[in-house]
Amino acid sequence: MSKRKSKSTYRNNLKARSEEARTVRKIVLIIILSILLIFIIGGYSGYTYIKQALQPVDPDSNEEVKVEIPLGSSSSSIGSILEKKGIIKDGRIFRFYTKFKNQFGFQAGKYNFTKSMTLDEIIASLKTGKIVKDALFKVTIPEGKSIDEIAEIFADKTKIKKAEFLKVVNDKAFIDKLMEKYPAILTKDIKNKEIRTPLEGYLFAATYNFYDEKYTVKSIVEMMLEKTSEVVGPYLDQLKEKDISIHEAITLASLVEKEAKTEDQRRKIAGIFYNRLDEGMKLQTDPTVLYALGKHKDKVLLSDLKIKSPYNTYEIEGLPVGPIANFSESSLEAIIKPEQSDYLYFLHDAEGNIHYAKTHEEHLKLKQQYIK
């Protein structure tokens, strides 16, 4: 009997030790996974922070800020001075960046910088001792412009010809390189064969400063895509939550941009577009007809609405195949946070006001009242 008890006790002890070992292994595994997760999150956060710190503080700012660099200043002290003046986002990143790029020989003096300058531009000024960093010229691209219109603006303001600009933005090899460089915003959707111009809608509306004559169409396009990436980047997680692809978002934002002028109008119209999509209705927005026609008209005719095109939202279901113009950040925000309403229709009167309706009957009455 005592032997049986001894064997039973041994088995129980062995079982207990085995269970204890399994528990320990589970705890160790959880700890290891937790540590790895912390490293991954920390690494991604660090990468994001550094990437943002390398960008200009305010790309649209032309205000000059006076900065004095004392004699014998190190890259660390220069970084601190620039950070305090609001010229760069982080002095430590400036110090690490200059070491990584092997940049040195900064000159003391009084400088005029702007918050729109890149780190490379700031470093170039500090090395050459160029006191004032003025743009040779500026080009302003308004919101709601197509690539064809953008090409005309650059042809008017620079030495670049419109045909040259359009040739480059439609070059397949160049587009492929841009997709590799900007994978977060340029997806395979832009290579749809039905799309008129792959980069349509992706060249952001802003004022661009040019500091020398060594510009090309490619450098201009990349500068504009950098701006798009900077503006769109903070909204990518919200777009994922709404289950909207970046291409769909920019397409819808371009429609909102063409239909509305104020923030309030944009949120209302974005909400109406979502309502129509939810109801299975066609979007039926006139700017897509004009884009399909390829020309501007003061008034869209009934015959125009029948044009066969993957852009014509009077003919197709859902969104057009791609954007019809560039967009403002306000329009992007509107499609992420649209105004909730029961409206399904809207129209513009001669004075630029927008009138909304819940039913087709109400919409027809508004037409009789405001459309002459």
TrEMBL record:
Q: Which Pfam families match?
A: YceG (PF02618)
Could you say which residues are annotated as the site Important for catalytic activity? Answer: 259
Please give, as recorded in its UniProt entry, the membrane topology of this protein: Single-pass membrane protein
Q: Enumerate the subcellular locations listed in this protein's record, separating them with semicolons.
A: Cell membrane
Catalytic activity, reaction form? a peptidoglycan chain = a peptidoglycan chain with N-acetyl-1,6-anhydromuramyl-[peptide] at the reducing end + a peptidoglycan chain with N-acetylglucosamine at the non-reducing end
Q: Which residues cross the membrane?
A: 27-47
Q: What is its EC number?
A: 4.2.2.29
Tell me which UniProt keywords the record has, alphabetically.
Cell membrane, Cell wall biogenesis/degradation, Lyase, Membrane, Transmembrane, Transmembrane helix
Domain of life, source organism: Bacteria
Predominant location category: membrane
Stored NCBIfam families? endolytic transglycosylase MltG (TIGR00247)
* Function description: Functions as a peptidoglycan terminase that cleaves nascent peptidoglycan strands endolytically to terminate their elongation.
The record's PANTHER family line, in alphabetical order, gives:
ENDOLYTIC MUREIN TRANSGLYCOSYLASE
Protein's name in the database: Endolytic murein transglycosylase
Organism this protein belongs to? Paracerasibacillus soli
Highest lineage ranks of the organism? Bacteria, Bacillati, Bacillota, Bacilli, Bacillales
